[in-house]
Specification:
With 324 residues, the chain is mainly α. 76% of the residues lie in helices and 3% in strands. It has twelve helices and three strands. A three-stranded mixed sheet has the order 2-1-3. Helix 2 crosses helix 12, helix 3 packs antiparallel against helix 5 and helix 10 runs antiparallel to helix 11. The N and C termini lie far apart (73 Å).
């Protein structure tokens, strides 16, 4: 109601990544490929984990949930961005803009918490292996996932509660391919300094807390692993490398944005693309290439599918040979 009385903006104009028609066609092809690969890659990881009994462990349960969040993150803005490459006037409704802000911060907040849960899982597996199955039971894993989503949604609602009632009375051009919260706040017809500080504090607090927890956890784990020289430690180190790589790629752009949250540079658009479009693709690539168990399960899944298709084909041929 407050928005209806104060705001005159019913839609926002997204300036996108480039004004060049040739570049937009190039981006259309590239990001369509990345989007499809990202969604299919994460779906394959989920199907692989669900279908293989050897991957019925807390680590892979959490990994499958990470892939689900990545699928969600791939769909909150990327399909519209791809479609907008083919149109000249790129707009999004006020409601659609608020929805993008809500979804982005929900997925990002949830993924941060889930990465912490995955670090805790590795900490217990390596530091307390004899108690691993007792501590990391299915009930605790479900609690971790539920907490991750709850924190992500609460984090997003806390942003949206202040943003939705801001008075947007004129400027409506967002210099990005989606509704980025700091850029939208700047369009409000009021002094937004306090709002900017609140946004920075809110997002910075959850980001810094999760990042510090991850750094401490993986530092302790790496110290313990380096003291061992068994083949099990080598496997653990390989798994840890995949986890740490994902953490660096996920938090790197995030930390950059919170160091310079409201002073935008030309490189920021491409970091936003990497953060929202490319990161969901990197997770399945990293985990599938660095994890022998996942690669083995994928080969089994492919083999079973091939066997099923051959059996179905031979059964069809046999039935066609039966005289009528």
């Amino acid at each position: 109601m407050a928005r209806g009385n104060q705001s005159m903006v019913s839609e926002f104009v997204l300036l996108g990544l480039s004004n060049s028609w040739e570049l937009q066609l190039f981006f259309f092809v590239i990001f369509t490929i990345v989007y499809v690969a990202s969604v299919l890659g994460n779906i394959i990881i989920i199907l692989t984990i669900v279908s293989d009994s050897h991957l019925n462990s807390p680590m892979y349960f959490l990994l499958s949930n990470l892939s689900f969040i990545d699928i969600c993150q791939s769909n909150f803005a990327t399909p519209k961005m791809i479609a907008d490459f083919l149109v000249e006037h790129k707009t999004i409704s006020f409601e659609g803009c608020m929805a993008q802000i809500f979804l982005l911060h929900s997925f990002v907040g949830s993924e941060m918490m889930l990465l912490v849960a995955m670090a805790y899982d590795r900490f217990i597996a390596i530091c307390k292996p004899l108690h691993y199955s007792t501590i990391m039971n299915r009930k605790l894993c479900i609690i971790f996932v539920a907490i991750s989503w709850a924190v992500g949604i609460l984090h997003s609602v806390s942003h949206l509660a202040f943003t939705v009632d801001l008075p947007f009375c004129g400027p409506n051009e967002v210099d990005s391919f989606f509704c980025d919260l700091p850029l939208v706040i700047e369009l409000a017809c009021m002094d937004t300094y306090e709002m900017e500080i609140m946004t920075l504090t809110n997002s910075g607090l959850i980001s810094l807390s999760c990042f510090l927890a991850l750094v401490i956890s993986y530092t302790v784990i790496l110290v313990i692993v380096r003291r061992r020289s068994s083949s099990g430690s080598s496997k653990a180190l390989s798994t840890l490398t995949a986890h740490i790589t994902v953490v660096i790629l996920f938090f790197g752009p995030c930390i950059y944005f919170y160091i310079w949250p409201f002073s935008r540079l030309s490189i920021d658009k491409f970091l936003s693309v990497f953060y929202t479009v490319c990161t969901p693709l990197l997770n399945p690539i990293i985990y599938s290439l660095r994890n022998e168990d996942v690669k083995s399960a994928m080969r089994k899944l492919k083999s079973r599918k091939l066997t099923f298709q051959l059996a179905r084909f031979s059964g069809h041929n046999s039935s066609s040979l039966i005289p009528t």
